[in-house]
Amino acid sequence: MKKHKRRREKRKKNIGAIILRILAGIMLTGVILMCVPLTVPRLFGYQIYTVISGSMEPEIPLGSLVYVKSAAPETVAEGDVIAYYGSTDGSIITHRVVYNQTVVKSFVTKGDANDTEDMVPVEYERLIGVVEKTIPKVGQIMTVFTETRGKILAAGMLVVSVLLNVIAGAIK
Questions:
Q1: Could you report the per-residue pLDDT of 135-167, keeping only the tens digit for each?
Q2: What angle do CA 84, 58, 147 make, to 5 degrees?
Q3: Structural contact between residues 87 and 120, judged by C-beta atoms closer than 8 angstroms
Q4: What is the 3-state secondary structure of the chain?
Q5: Which terminus of the chain, N or C, has less C-beta within 10 A?
């Protein structure tokens, strides 16, 4: 009779340990999946930005994540979407190239949602690169993880994941 009771208790402990390990795995996987879009592309030379205005809608919606690859200004074609530094405040703007004026070394750009071309041409020196990929809505989520509270949340999830694994090991 005592053997049966011990087996049941051992099974309950094993199930508890399994549940804790599954929860830890889910938390760890969640943190990794949230970090992948922000880290892996950088290894391949991309810069990543979040779109904070609707000037490129509907093609690039507000809150999209954009992946920008550096390019030689002379190779940028009409119709390419580029990211560049704003002329006055250093903000990063993403607009479509209407003309590449290679002689004067500047671009005439326009936001898809805007009625007119941008008033100030973009000098080659302000070019960051060409937008190669966009992921709608993900930029809003990723912004949370790049802020201090998001980093604390991610670190906390990692710590809890490790603790759950330690507890699961102790139970087993």
A1: 887 777 777 777 788 888 888 988 999 998 888
A2: 55
A3: yes
A4: CHHHHHHHHHHHHHHHHHHHHHHHHHHHHHHHHHHHHHHHHHHCCEEEEECCCCCCCCCCCCCCEEEEECCCHHHCCCCCEEEEECCCCCCEEEEEEEEEECCCCEEEEECCCCCCCCCCCEEHHHEEEEEEEEECCHHHHHHHHHCHHHHHHHHHHHHHHHHHHHHHHHHC
A5: N
Question: How long, in residues, is the chain?
Answer: 172
Answer whether 0.90 is exceeded by the pTM: no
Give the largest CA-CA distance in the chain. Answer: 93
